[in-house]
Amino acid sequence: MSEPVSSATVLAGGLMGASVFGLATGTDYGVVFGAFAGAVFYVATATNIGRIRLVAYFITSFIVGVLGAGLIGTKLAAITHYEKPLDALGAV
């Protein structure tokens, strides 16, 4: 029997939510998608954790990814001597 809401639907809803967040706040889309991808990866690799704690980890990881993207992106650009901003990579 199939699930009423598939994981692809949940992922699409999450990406839509990240897009709306980026549009509403004026944040760079690369940073928002990077933070979303990092949060999804962090939650997907967690084991033996309850649903409420997983949601809390996801929200915390997403917020830290968005807020820390500039700092980490600047550090990555300085280390690699790359001339373009690496904020989106720093968000992951």
Question: What labels would you give this structure?
Answer:
mainly alpha, 4 helices, 92 residues, 76% helix, globular
Description:
The protein has 92 residues and is mainly α. It has one domain. It is 76% helix and 0% strand. It contains 4 helices and no strands. Helix 1 packs antiparallel against helix 2 (29-44) and helix 2 (29-44) packs across helix 3 (51-80). It is globular and about 50 Å long. The chain starts with 6 loop residues before the first helix and ends with a helix. InterPro entries: Phage_holin-like. Keywords: Membrane, Transmembrane, Transmembrane helix. The chain crosses the membrane at residues 20-43, 55-79.
Rounded Rg: 15 Å
| Poorly predicted segments | none
* Shape by Cα distribution: globular
Helix content: over 70%
- Total strand segments: 0
Oligomer: single chain
Mean pLDDT level? 85
Give me the strand/helix succession: HHHH
The number of helical elements comes to 4
**C-alpha termini separation:** 35 Å
- Tally of distinct domains: 1
Q: How much β-strand is present in the residues? A: under 5%
Largest sheet: none
Structural class comes to: mainly alpha
